[in-house]
Amino acid sequence: MKKIEAIIKPFKLDDVKDGLSNIGVRGLSVTEIKGFGRQRGHKEVYRGAEYQVDFVSKIKIEVVVDSDLASEAVKTIQEKAYTGQIGDGKIFILPVEEVIRIRTGERGNSAL
Amino acid sequence: MKKIEAIIKPFKLDDVKDGLSNIGVRGLSVTEIKGFGRQRGHKEVYRGAEYQVDFVSKIKIEVVVDSDLASEAVKTIQEKAYTGQIGDGKIFILPVEEVIRIRTGERGNSAL
Amino acid sequence: MKKIEAIIKPFKLDDVKDGLSNIGVRGLSVTEIKGFGRQRGHKEVYRGAEYQVDFVSKIKIEVVVDSDLASEAVKTIQEKAYTGQIGDGKIFILPVEEVIRIRTGERGNSAL
Amino acid sequence: MNTGDTAFVLMSAALVMLMTPGLALFYGGMTRSKNVLGTIMQSFIILGIISIEWVLWGYSMAFGPDHGGVIGGLDWLGLDSVGMEPNADYCGTIPHLAFMIFQCMFAVITPALITGAFAERMKFSAFLLFTILWATLVYNPLCHWVWAVGGWIRGLGALDFAGGTVVHISSGVSALAAAIILGKRLGYGSTAYIPHNLPMTITGAALLWFGWFGFNAGSALACNGLAASAFTVTHIASAAAALSWIILEWIHRGKPTTLGAASGAVAGLVAITPGSGFVGPLSAIIIGAMAGLICYGGVLVKSRLGYDDSLDVVGVHGLGGTWGALATGLFASKAINPAGADGLFFGNAAQLWVQFVSVIVTMAFAFIMTFIILKILDIVIGVRITEEEEVRGMDVSLHNESGYSF
Amino acid sequence: MNTGDTAFVLMSAALVMLMTPGLALFYGGMTRSKNVLGTIMQSFIILGIISIEWVLWGYSMAFGPDHGGVIGGLDWLGLDSVGMEPNADYCGTIPHLAFMIFQCMFAVITPALITGAFAERMKFSAFLLFTILWATLVYNPLCHWVWAVGGWIRGLGALDFAGGTVVHISSGVSALAAAIILGKRLGYGSTAYIPHNLPMTITGAALLWFGWFGFNAGSALACNGLAASAFTVTHIASAAAALSWIILEWIHRGKPTTLGAASGAVAGLVAITPGSGFVGPLSAIIIGAMAGLICYGGVLVKSRLGYDDSLDVVGVHGLGGTWGALATGLFASKAINPAGADGLFFGNAAQLWVQFVSVIVTMAFAFIMTFIILKILDIVIGVRITEEEEVRGMDVSLHNESGYSF
Amino acid sequence: MNTGDTAFVLMSAALVMLMTPGLALFYGGMTRSKNVLGTIMQSFIILGIISIEWVLWGYSMAFGPDHGGVIGGLDWLGLDSVGMEPNADYCGTIPHLAFMIFQCMFAVITPALITGAFAERMKFSAFLLFTILWATLVYNPLCHWVWAVGGWIRGLGALDFAGGTVVHISSGVSALAAAIILGKRLGYGSTAYIPHNLPMTITGAALLWFGWFGFNAGSALACNGLAASAFTVTHIASAAAALSWIILEWIHRGKPTTLGAASGAVAGLVAITPGSGFVGPLSAIIIGAMAGLICYGGVLVKSRLGYDDSLDVVGVHGLGGTWGALATGLFASKAINPAGADGLFFGNAAQLWVQFVSVIVTMAFAFIMTFIILKILDIVIGVRITEEEEVRGMDVSLHNESGYSF
Ligand SMILES: Nc1ncnc2c1ncn2[C@@H]1O[C@H](COP(=O)(O)OP(=O)(O)O)[C@@H](O)[C@H]1O
Ligand SMILES: Nc1ncnc2c1ncn2[C@@H]1O[C@H](COP(=O)(O)OP(=O)(O)O)[C@@H](O)[C@H]1O
Ligand SMILES: Nc1ncnc2c1ncn2[C@@H]1O[C@H](COP(=O)(O)OP(=O)(O)O)[C@@H](O)[C@H]1O
């Protein structure tokens, strides 16, 4: 099994989620994060004092999938999160050793 | 060492934390996330317009443990987070290569 | 490639980010988390009722780097996040199998 | 008719109206964020429902021509013959409608106060029915007894300038009955019910304080020295209680809290209410300071007694109102209000007895009636939401909404 | 000069002033959090810009000596000869300045109401220009026609006690024109524009309700029985509309919402505005209850018609104001205000016709003028922010700020 | 006694009371979220502590029978002989108590203003002591000098209608002393002290604006043409300053900000305060517009001078108050207030000199006294929280609470 972590633009979340759903992904987790990267942040000004905010709001999607599904999932994310603008984000693939469903105790692929 | 990531129901956090504490886990990290899965979200209505909210509030617990402790930790989480209802969540186990404690520079198990 | 996850004190974020930038890290992601560990939380009192809050606000930095850069990155984080007080946090190193940049489809180190 | 008096009473009515949304914020901030809208909604919709009830039959029951000291007649249903002219019985210098709408705001906030007791767990439909029944069967008669010409408690000579019994004791005691019947919230004892937004709570307390000037000073129903005096003692008692509460908690818990300051301020306002037109400024300091201490104690005791009065209506309004009503019997002075009476400290022990009687009667009546109403409602339609609804929170479960989406 | 009347009108002016920040919260809470400041800013800065406009030329155009029933003269530019003495035409018992500043608050809130239609997407510079032009070319003339001595709609005998046409229909219809010209927000149809902070919205609604007492009762320009009556019906209509809105949505969507209660309350306040000095309490219940139903319907229809009136200005103010103006022609009664007229239900069908004419004229005038102003602005400087600015949100894009940083 | 005047002053007192919670929100929103309660608490508890101080000895020191122009006697301790009858010296047409409680609200808000200077880092106990000492040793004497019959600055003929020197310069200059003694916040220069909740700040600004009508117009102590005039210029100056501030920052920083609009509005209110009963509407536009520019500059200069006046009390209240006091010497006109004086632009250069003297005296007195009080407190008990407390935030460290828990 693989864990796919994708950092994407917030307004792409629904598209990505629906895309993953369509290829058979049955669950995923979403976190609001602040990203730092090539995409520049913005300036804020409070009573004449200027602050550079380096961080950009991003969404992190975490989804654990059967290794067979991984490349398709990556492809789907790539397509659905794509705008072509800087800051579209990254996808990271990490190894997962085991998965357990709390409710049933199932393990492995059937726990997904 | 292993990293255990558990997605659980928010109101189970204290039980799980205490359970892990009891078996000797000395630290963990908690993130509020939005989960998408078999458990359905809810409907929201604003001035007659209906929105389906697919995401459910969940808590992600991340805990890095000595490999020996991993299975006990998983068992504890399973027990403490259990309600038997859909949406109880998942546990993922990932490999960890190294751990460093910032304050002391210790590495490996003694850094936990 | 390695994924470095560092749990640090919130007010050290800017220092750590700048330090990593200086050694050539071009992107990272930041999450607000609640930490439980040796550093004790605080007491809250509402109308005479006392609550022990075990969790402490922490920042989690996630950064994926070329394996060669990993140890330097760890060193940098160690230095920049250091206060010498309990609760300075941990650094975890995890293996990463693949990285993809959504915008360009690049993979591996060049996607970072 | 006097334009100054009318301006004062109408503006006071506006201020008192604002207290109910103020209360919504005060309570809303103390709940968990999943219940913020459900809590606010209860106060807000009472503004809707009781205002209509008051116009249709409430005002007539409360202030209509007396029947045996017990209840007003139905002569003024739908505000029939309540018009632009003064009414000699209640408001010689202002339009009868001004008096009616001023009183309307009191009728509104009283049941809203009770909602703090059953916060985070009551069915919305049951809540609406309860509110209408409570207003009709508890508030209207009680209001008649205490304030209407011919009302039997008024006849005893009990002093209640702005609603110690009618508003605060009645809601505080009803809150106790409600907390008992509704039962404890899920997780009571293990879950931390931490306020989700204290700045909201403090904003609410500030609006309450602001509105209370209308509540108490407006109860002079004219804009004269007595109004200025009531205004002054209201402010002072609130200030003193905010201080005494935080000092006590500083000693008891090691630190003074913001929620304590806000709670104390409200406790002081509650306690000065019945005496606001009868006591002087130094008495007000004592009444307020004691109120802070007493209500702090009342809130603490709750956990011992084991009922889940979620937002401390019993401790603050029940106890504070009781202390205020009795304190009126201690500190009232004809030097302040010749139309009133002297209290124990001014040589008239009898007044304290009368106050005591009015307190006991109010308590017994409100508690029993509320208990019966809720019991019947519970049997007939059920008063409590399901476990799942409670876990999800009222906002999503009862109203299909979320308070925040940052 | 009468001190009571003056106190009442000045305090009413203060209350009406508070409505604009109240509106800022009401609207601000309904937007997404990235636009909260941009939305609040529009209302807040209107307080600045229109107050100055009003003093410099607005008041003179609106209430200055009449020219042909169409517009006021420039004799009162910069408040020249608007002083501390009463003005026999408008305010026999209060200082002329008190009347001027009371009216100033109306001139301020009216364009602020429109901002809900183009929320989350208008350029700040274009918005400022639009506001000044709209005040000058739409509000000031309309205000003159309806309220000034010599104004031609006033001459027809149309009744508008506190601004049904001048304030609500004019802003509601202008909102429609603005929504059409600005176009839909990015993501319309697919993105969920969920309110980011409903407690803020409800707080805003509460401040609107509170301020509306000044708006309507203050329009009596004296503190007498009529003021008390206007105060009363204002409260009642709002209460009734809050109830009818949530009952309808309970039936229609299965659950009553907090936003619905707040929206209903505002709808009721809008609808009672023109008739507040002419109708009695039972009529107010009907006017309010109908307003809740009509405006709920109006909001629903929006999505059918396909314009993006983001915060429902058309549905609430346009429709509510229209219903209110016509309802005045139905329910007005000389028994309430001998200086008014009877409506259809009191035997005078002609009044309904007059009301109808005033509504149609206001609609046509406001819609056409707003359309032209915005069209020209769009051609000359562009009215809409860029896509990237819209995605980032107004707060960061237009104001270099963030609303929250918890 | 006049009911209209009394209604006006009592309602004004209620409005001014609301300014202190308004200030709590204004300041609270600008701090970081970990300090929101600590900041709000300082204003809120001042409502408690100073109200009691005022009743017990403050009012007597400030307005009691004069001793040598320097201080009031202790004849009115505990409000002895301050009753329901008018007092010929201060309030011929309203109850003495009404004047007292109106003034109480001024005594409350003035030290609350200072808290912005030492936000996020002062010990609570030291803060309480400082507040009591400052009120007793700075505010009460100054108030006597400027406003009491017999006060020596009043004797010079200095004009200060509603508190330019007494309230704003005194607090602004004391803020400077406090910022110097307290020192900079941890991380000054490297940490971004970004406001955590600007909608809260703007809500606070709106309540300040609203309350300021009571502050300035209420200072007429009667409800007449002068009150209407003061009300009008207050509104106009605030509007003008909101505009001028954002225009200047638009030019200087490229974008107009919401915080700028709110800050400008407050600056305008500050600046018009001393002249509000003496200047006309066009003068008010100039005074307000200049205030926006001057205070914007003042805020900018801060970072150059290197003291950490966290929430810009010096820049807004100190500078704004100074400009206002001097502007009164320029724009005052007997045509507006025959009981006042003409300013430079109306042919009387001497008035500017008198104003200048009153400013300098106030500055010197307030700065020196505050410096001494804080220095002594620092030596005796320490005024600053520990580093660890500061890092954790005041809410948890000083009050065992958290502002939010969403
Ligand atoms: N090395 C990295 N490790 C972890 N997260 C990263 C890394 N590089 C980028 N990110 C995340 O991806 C987001 C997008 O990256 P950015 O460099 O702005 O644009 P792009 O994806 O177009 O290369 C960043 O905001 C950050 O959250
Ligand atoms: N494949 C997955 N990858 C990551 N997170 C998942 C995955 N499947 C489920 N989750 C998380 O677990 C939560 C619970 O899953 P759900 O399918 O609702 O119920 P259950 O745990 O009973 O199977 C989801 O809300 C989501 O946060
Ligand atoms: N085993 C662990 N797994 C995951 N996170 C941990 C673990 N131990 C500690 N942490 C995180 O590191 C933070 C700091 O740890 P703590 O024990 O308080 O101090 P120190 O870093 O000085 O040992 C904790 O608040 C928690 O977020």
Automatic annotation (TrEMBL), chains A, B, C:
Sequence positions bearing O-UMP-tyrosine: 51
GO biological process, one term: regulation of nitrogen utilization
GO terms, molecular function: ATP binding; enzyme regulator activity
Domain of life: Bacteria
PANTHER family cross-referenced by the UniProt entry: NITROGEN REGULATORY PROTEIN P-II, NITROGEN REGULATORY PROTEIN P-II HOMOLOG
Transmembrane segment boundaries: none
Organism: uncultured Desulfobacterium sp
Protein name in UniProt: Regulatory protein P-II for glutamine synthetase
Cited SUPFAM superfamilies: GlnB-like (SSF54913)
Gene Ontology CC annotation, any one: cytosol
UniProt xrefs under Pfam families: P-II (PF00543)
Subunit structure: Homotrimer.
Keywords noted in UniProt: Nucleotide-binding, Phosphoprotein, Transcription, Transcription regulation
Family: Belongs to the P(II) protein family.
UniProt keyword annotation of Metal-binding present: no
TrEMBL record, chains D, E, F:
InterPro entries per record: Ammonium/urea_transptr, Ammonium_transpt, Ammonium_transpt_CS, NH4_transpt_AmtB-like_dom
Principal location class: membrane
Molecular function as annotated in GO: ammonium channel activity
Keywords: Ammonia transport, Cell membrane, Membrane, Transmembrane, Transmembrane helix, Transport
Residues passing through the membrane, by range: 6-29, 36-57, 94-114, 126-149, 161-182, 194-215, 227-247, 259-276, 282-301, 313-332, 352-374
Domain of life according to the entry: Bacteria
The keyword Transmembrane helix is assigned to this record: yes
Location in or out of the cell: Cell membrane
Membrane topology: Multi-pass membrane protein
Stated family: Belongs to the ammonia transporter channel (TC 1.A.11.2) family.
Name by which UniProt lists this protein: Ammonium transporter
Upper classification of the organism: Bacteria, Pseudomonadati, Thermodesulfobacteriota, Desulfobacteria, Desulfobacterales
Gene: amtB
